[in-house]
Specification:
By secondary structure, the chain is of the alpha+beta class. Among the domains are: 15-92, no CATH class; 484-543, no CATH class; 546-627, Orthogonal Bundle (Multidrug-efflux Transporter Regulator, Chain: A, Domain 2). It contains 19 helices and 21 strands. It has helices spanning 30-43, 59-92, 118-134, 137-147, 170-178, 229-242, 307-322, 326-368, 374-407, 413-421, 423-427, 434-444, 491-498, 504-513, 526-535, 552-559, 563-571, 596-607, 613-618; strands at residues 15-17, 46-49, 52-54, 104-106, 112-114, 151-156, 161-166, 186-188, 191-198, 201-209, 217-219, 265-267, 275-277, 287-289, 304-306, 445-453, 458-465, 470-476, 549-550, 578-579, 586-589. The strands form 8 sheets. A 4-stranded mixed sheet has the order 12-16-17-18. It has a 3-stranded mixed sheet with strand order 1-2-3, covered by helices on one side. Helix 4 (137-147) crosses helix 5. The N and C termini lie far apart (95 Å).
């Protein structure tokens, strides 16, 4: 400063003014404020407010500035705390207003009311009905898009609240199904903020969902709901079961496939949910497998069992359980067809009514315009024509729906009742959809616990019914499951016969398949196989030593067929193969792949493939009378 006194106006200092307008200074907290005072002290800047002038270089002024900054920060925190407390208090009474989802609006009495627009209310009711019927949000979206049914969406901005009609989207359906407002409950504080320190900086993220028990406010029965609270909880449970990608211990929903007990089977030893594994050929059975921790490839699996016999035993119990109520189920299935058609017609009629109003409004606007303003008249006339075209399109669509309903044959209730009495025939029919069987199974069964009885060579199946009862079954096992060896082979014997013939990794797979026991009863890995091979003095596998032979997988790749098809050709003797010992890998001569017999066999396999696999799968649906 060159000996200059503060504020002597010689131009060597600058002045920083601060006004006390609710916060002292521009700093957001005390740390920033004290840092600012340090900078002012280094630069020789004066701090001026309504009470006086302060020099941060003087200890008394610096102390006073620090106290004022602390008091200002406390004042801001107090205001914020009181504001949050007032907001929470208002929310506890159900009086805090926020943007409502489609189907609701704030009434004149500051209460939540149903939207008076009948089309909006009918669309929300239809969404909940279809979800209860189809059991999946994605299926609701697909049905609405196929039926060309639109959903209301709130368009939010700072000035207006407007309802728009759009094609159904998945996130729109999920938001409606997960919102407790539609169950008549006032909910606030369902999401929270999270703060993380990234690269030394605080990063705050919002929108993290909290569990229902952690919501700030939940007032049930606050207003009229589209569904009851019990139905809302059932919907949330069903949505959780549909979330297959989330690893939880609860059961999962049915997703198609040949397995009847998809998402219901629990391991009787570790308590984890068992997974379903399918093979490539439709004729091959599926398998229920518990993979335990499944953290590493070398971890030992828990239990596994073929699913065909288990499914048949459980299906027999289901048919016995529902035989008395089969007539009611058949009539309900017929009524659902008519209800679905009526829902579509009602939605289109609501859309037609709104389109007719828009056309009438466009007509009145065109009649009020001055004929001399041709540039305005032309625009209004174009809008009127577009509205009329929309009305004609919807009227034609309603006419098509009426024609379709008239052409649909009437439901033969007598035939349905006969079908219901003969439910096992309908269940085992080739055209019965597997998804329909799975949905019926999930309605009746809570879960199925499976355990193995090695002494009796049986599967212990315990069915937990939804009503709380339990049924225990015993299913006989196949003695030689999945081709595992029944005779034990010593690792040294297997290594002397197969060592050097195949890579160490394939030898490890083969020895595990043969159930060879190591000294420590451990699973065979590539490292353990290499150690045993080197200890016995057996050379490693050399691909160049036997270029005239290949494995089953390589042969399938060259012939462009599946591995199971190659095994079929080997079993039939069409394709020559060498197997040094049972369950060992096969060796296929390369020259035999181009033989005429093999080529004929490959062409026969390819000719049996369906030309349109997607259409082939779609044809496997249950056709009920009246559909």
């Amino acid at each position: 400063m060159g000996g200059c006194r503060p504020g002597d106006g010689n131009g060597n200092e600058s002045t920083l003014r601060r006004h006390r307008n609710g916060q002292y200074g521009t700093a957001s907290n005390g740390r920033d404020w004290h840092h600012l005072i340090d900078l002012c002290a280094l630069a020789g800047v004066l701090v001026i407010d309504h009470d006086g002038v302060y020099d941060p270089r003087l200890i008394n002024d610096r102390l006073l500035l620090g106290l004022k900054g602390t008091m200002s920060e406390y004042e801001l925190s107090l205001f914020r705390q009181r504001g949050i407390a007032a907001r929470d208090s208002k929310a506890q009474r159900g009086e805090l207003r926020f943007t409502l989802p489609p189907g609701y609006c704030w009434g004149e009495t500051e209460q939540i009311e149903m939207d008076p627009d009948e089309r909006v209310a009918d669309a929300i009711h239809l969404l909940f009905r279809k979800f209860r019927e189809l059991g999946s949000a994605r299926q609701v979206v697909l049905w609405m898009r196929q039926s060309q049914v639109q959903l209301p969406v709130v368009r939010r901005n700072l000035a207006s609240y407007k309802i728009e009609w759009r094609a159904p989207a998945y996130h729109t359906v999920i938001q409606v199904l997960k919102s407790p407002i539609y169950a008549g409950a006032y909910a606030f504080g369902r999401r929270s903020y999270r703060t993380k320190v990234v690269d030394g900086r605080a990063r705050k993220t919002s929108g993290h969902s909290k569990s229902m028990s952690d919501w700030d406010v939940l007032l049930q029965g606050n207003h009229q709901g589209y569904i009851t609270w019990e139905q809302f909880e059932e919907n949330q449970k069903l949505l959780d079961e549909n979330a297959h990608m989330q690893k939880r211990g609860s059961r999962k929903a049915a997703r198609g496939g040949r397995a009847l007990l998809t998402g219901l089977v629990r391991c009787g030893r570790c308590g984890r949910m068992m997974q379903v594994f399918y093979r490539t050929q439709p004729s091959c059975t599926h398998r229920y497998q518990c993979r335990g921790k499944d953290s590493q490839v070398a971890d030992e699996l828990c239990i596994g069992i073929g699913g065909l016999r288990v499914d048949r035993a459980v299906a027999a119990q289901i048919l016995e359980a529902v035989s008395d109520h089969a007539v009611e189920a058949a009539i309900l299935a017929a009524d659902q067809v008519a209800t679905a058609a009526a829902d579509v017609r009602k939605a289109v009629e609501g859309e037609l009514e709104e389109a007719q109003y828009e056309a009438s409004l466009a007509s009145r606007r065109y009649d009020l315009v001055d004929p001399g303003k041709r540039h305005v008249a032309r625009t209004l006339e174009a809008r009127w024509n577009a509205a009329l075209e929309r009305v004609a399109e919807l009227e034609q669509r309603i006419a098509d729906l009426e024609t379709e309903a008239a052409s649909r044959p009437e439901t033969d209730r007598a035939a349905l009742m006969q079908l219901a009495h003969d439910l096992p025939v309908a269940w085992n029919a080739p055209t019965t959809d597997a998804r329909a069987k799975q949905r019926l199974t999930h309605i009746l069964i809570q879960e199925v616990v499976i355990d193995l009885d090695d002494a009796a060579n049986e599967v212990k199946v315990v069915i937990h019914w939804v009503g709380g009862r339990h049924t225990e079954l015993r299913v006989a096992r196949v003695k030689n499951v999945h081709g595992f060896a029944t005779d034990q082979h010593s690792p040294v014997e297997v290594m002397r016969k197969l060592g050097g013939q195949w890579p160490d990794r394939e030898l490890a797979v083969t020895m595990n398949r043969m159930r060879c026991k190591s000294q420590k009863d451990e699973t065979w890995t590539t490292a353990r196989v290499r150690e045993l091979r080197e200890r016995l003095g057996i050379a490693a596998f050399d691909p160049a030593a036997s270029p005239e032979t290949i494995g089953i997988a390589a042969a399938a790749q060259r012939l462009k067929i599946s591995v199971d098809s190659v095994h079929q050709l080997v079993r039939e003797g069409v394709l020559p193969g060498i197997q040094l010992m049972p369950l060992a890998p096969w060796k296929i001569p390369v020259a035999a792949l181009d033989s005429e017999a093999v080529q004929i066999g490959v062409r026969e396999i390819i000719s049996r493939r369906p030309r349109n696999m997607a259409k082939f799968q779609d044809d496997k649906t249950l056709q009920l009378p009246g559909l």
